[in-house]
What we know:
- The structure is a single chain.
- By secondary structure, the protein is an alpha+beta fold.
- The protein has three domains: about 5-175, tt1808, chain A (Alpha-Beta Complex), CATH 3.90.1570.30; about 190-250, no CATH class; about 265-355, Signal recognition particle alu RNA binding heterodimer, srp9/1 (2-Layer Sandwich), CATH 3.30.720.
- It has helices at about 5-15, 25-40, 95-100, 145-150, 160-185, 190-200, 205-250, 265-280, 345-355, and strands at about 50-55, 65-70, 75-80, 105-110, 115-120, 135, 285-290, 295-300, 305-310, 320-325, 330-335.
- It has a six-stranded mixed sheet with strand order 1-2-3-4-5-6. Strands 7-8-9-10-11 form a five-stranded antiparallel sheet.
- Helix 1 (about 5-15) runs antiparallel to helix 2.
- The longest helix has about 45 residues, at about 205-250.
Amino acid sequence: xxxxxxxxxxxxxxxxxxxxxxxxxxxxxxxxxxxxxxxxxxxxxxxxxxxxxxxxxxxxxxxxxxxxxxxxxxxxxxxxxxxxxxxxxxxxxxxxxxxxxxxxxxxxxxxxxxxxxxxxxxxxxxxxxxxxxxxxxxxxxxxxxxxxxxxxxxxxxxxxxxxxxxxxxxxxxxxxxxxxxxxxxxxxxxxxxxxxxxxxxxxxxxxxxxxxxxxxxxxxxxxxxxxxxxxxxxxxxxxxxxxxxxxxxxxxxxxxxxxxxxxxxxxxxxxxxxxxxxxxxxxxxxxxxxxxxxxxxxxxxxxxxxxxxxxxxxxxxxxxxxxxxxxxxxxxxxxxxxxxxxxxxxxxxxxxxxxxxxxxxx
Length: 362
């Protein structure tokens, strides 16, 4: 099993077990230690993973960091502080800040077992940054971030390699957040900048209010136009191979022809979420998927007569359908992949219905 599959499997475990972890210690054992194992570290070797790591140099007396990943020379390279999964992650007066300063560790991690925030010292040497350069959410995994997480695996760990990409990750993430904020509610500075380019008059309060609405609307229209242009380009590119296929088909009438179906990473993520929901009832290997041109089907026992749901991610509106007693599709609009968890009851009922139809043989 490759690293990406291991992390996705751990994600399913985390989603399933988090509600059962009532204490911080339980969260460490059930959620965090398996992550360290996925990263290739021997959690039972105190020379490699030190629990309740203590450094007496310049820190408050009795303070401990939950875990330290150690180098072969006995120096810590990663410090890890854990919270309960229901707690928010904040660095305010956190011992990670002090330990980072007094040890030779270049990286620190603040986690609640669901979200992992990775820090280093990009702003000032030997002083931990206030903002992470990488954030991994186990409930909403993204392929590109899994690749960044892989760099922390024991087999690939290299300080210089990680630091070289940390700056770009950090500032790209912060810029994306700022852009999203401006898109949702343009600041006066941004509105004033754009308004001055098109309006020669005085920007009083009334005109600022007027242009704030226009700037926000203009952003929306610009992105809408870009999406439309991309769709048109995709349609043109899709039509060209179809024409070519028809020409080849006319020359080779005996060849089987059919549309090319591409399974997207987002569809696979939806599959993993459905499997995570249903594994409390049935073995995960009984849940299969088949991709079609218009939808992505998730089936029980890889049987077309036992559909669990269908994923419709190809259009502008994304939605999932389950099935009622008459096998008619029931639509559920979704904004993010996490919304699939909201239809857990319907998915579990589908499994119950199929299991009652064909009881297991004794």
